[in-house]
Amino acid sequence: MDLTTVLQILDSTIRLGTPLLLACLAGLFSERAGIFDIGLEGKMLAAAFLSAAAAFVTGDVWLGVAAGIFAALLMSAIHGLASITFRGNQLISGVAINFLASGLTVLLGQYWFALGGRTPSLTGDARFAPITLWGAEALREVPVIGPIYYELISGHTALVYVAVAMVPLSAWLLYRTRFGLRLRAVGENPAAVDTAGVSVVGIRFAAVAICGVLTGLAGAYLATGLSAGFVKEMTAGRGYIALAALIFAKWRPWYALGATMLFGFLEAISNRYQNIDLGGIVIPVQFMQALPYILTVVILAGFVGKATPPRAGGEPYVKER
Amino acid sequence: MQKMPPWADALLVPLLSLLIAFAISSVVIFAIGENPVEAMKLMVTGALGSSYGWGYTLYYATNFMFTGLAVAVAFHAGLFNIGGEGQASLGGLGVALVCLMVPWPHWSLALIGAVVCGALFGALWAALPAWLQAKRGSHIVITTIMFNFIAASLLNYLLVNMLRPVGSMDPATARFPAETNLPGLGEILGAVGIPFSTSTPANVSLFLALACCVLVWVLIWRTRLGYQIRAFGKSEKAAVYAGIRPVRITMYAMLISGGLAGMMAVNNVMGEANRLVLNSVEGAGFIGIAVALMGRSHPFGVFLAAILFGFLYQGGAELALWTKIPRELITVIQALVILFTGALDNMVRQPVEWLFARAGRGAK
């Protein structure tokens, strides 16, 4: 394997890891505030659809992103209403959101565009173009550093850089601000936050809204950055992989970057090679596809580094009377 | 506060939730430029207007009874088994192996073999998540989701690389021998003099599903294990105090749940397809969640809800055939049913409770 191949695989690792990273951070905010979210998949799917539809109609990709965020926020509002206001089961609400998005996207897509649930292909300004970073062209010929900078770091679409910037931003917000402290506290011990006179419901809704914005970005990236338009079920389980990455990352932002890039790498490998021959032992492509889930089960089992979820996760908060 | 009478809890609240779900679905149908009343008529005639329609409705309902019961049993133990999809596809593997490998002389013996093997494979696929939940505290919802995906990859591998007959491009097993073909519902009813369409996939598994409904009822409300499962589901602390062992109950409940999901394969793999194909479960595992919620985890409720979803499935197929409404409408209805009977239950319940409390005060 030469440098070019390695760079190509790492390049698609970043591309494929980006939606996972955004969705994983989305889940991180929600779950750190004590709201389990298995509806990441549905939110991403809804966002992917509406962003592609809006980008096609307006011809402006940023309006598409805004529409995608709007769609994901609507789904978040349902989740918040069910799990915070009416103290329903958060997992069941998540399942409902996944089905709602899966059905509505095809229903509306067929009604609007009559292409069997697809949106028309996006071209020109309706999708994200790669950004060439400053000096990439000039450095291109420098050995080793040049190709790495040109291929790997430069030349991605805007949302990739947004996603990477979200990691330090999330870490700062969670660990360095008053809001972050309260958000984490709401997920561990909501009664204490309530005693301090801070609204548990308010913080939790804020967390769910942040989750909506980030899944909106993730979905918009899928439809307008990674591909050119929406196709039926295009999230293809990425919401669940993001959920797996969240556990793998033990609910921490920087670890989330590592976990999602690892899972992105696995996807890049299985896209490129059908079966991997390791001197006699052939690893089938299906094993690579299942690996993120297997790794997550191993981590969950606590044999390798125990993952402990936020203590108040999944429980609706009931004020003491 | 005055409690609601039991009938309101068991019937009124689910019916109201269902009504809201259907009302919103009608708005959706209206919004995409179709007539909800016409759509409903078409669904009813398509699914219930002929014995052909009924055959398909009952075939789908059989699937949903198995997966619905699977989710319901786990719910009673306070566990959310979201892995019915994976367990049912592993059940399919078990049924396929036993049908292909054993030279069965008669379908009745093959049926017994398939039930045992399907349930066993389904239960095994539920065993590891159950054990991890019981022993290591790994959240069963997450592990069963992961196991759904692992099952999909495993079956993909086995069908493409191992079970595919030589020379076939299709990732599916060979056809099962004719001796294992189950008698259809039309033949059975025809034998006792009831005319019923013979060209539907409904088969003898329907009676197996009905028997499972009764058995689950007996298990949950008439046996010691059922009592322990319910006690554990209501309050783990109290159950432990009463000497109920959490590891044992978690394992039993999940093994039964996985076994029921696995048995679904008798209907769809053995009864209908006569071979194992990729993605044979087609989402029935997830519909089990809606069915169990709708049926309030009671076997009779599961039975009714399964029939309802069978009707929706067959009706939805007819809609897609005759109108421009895609099949995905059913997914939307399913989502709304899960949302209102499951997650937004309190939204429907609170006003009803309030009304009963008011009426109760008025009577005094």
From TrEMBL, chain A:
PANTHER family for the chain: GUANOSINE ABC TRANSPORTER PERMEASE PROTEIN NUPQ, SUGAR ABC TRANSPORTER INTEGRAL MEMBRANE PROTEIN-RELATED
Membrane topology: Multi-pass membrane protein
Stretches that traverse the bilayer: 12-30, 65-84, 91-113, 158-175, 205-231, 251-269, 281-304
Localization (cell): Cell membrane
GO cellular component, one term: plasma membrane
Keywords: Cell membrane, Membrane, Transmembrane, Transmembrane helix
Pfam families assigned to the protein according to its UniProt record, in alphabetical order: BPD_transp_2
Source organism: Cereibacter changlensis
Protein's recorded name: Nucleoside ABC transporter membrane protein
GO molecular function annotations of the record: transmembrane transporter activity
Domain of life the protein comes from: Bacteria
Keyword Repressor: no
Record flagged with keyword Nucleotide-binding: no
From TrEMBL, chain B:
Membrane topology field: Multi-pass membrane protein
Cell compartment(s), UniProt: Cell membrane
InterPro entries, per the entry: ABC_transp_permease
Secretion signal, residue range per the UniProt entry: none
Cell membrane as UniProt keyword: yes
Cellular component terms (Gene Ontology): plasma membrane
Bilayer-spanning residue ranges: 12-33, 53-75, 87-104, 110-128, 140-160, 202-221, 249-270, 302-323, 329-348
Protein name: Sugar ABC transporter permease
Record key words, sorted: Cell membrane, Membrane, Transmembrane, Transmembrane helix
One GO molecular-function entry: transmembrane transporter activity
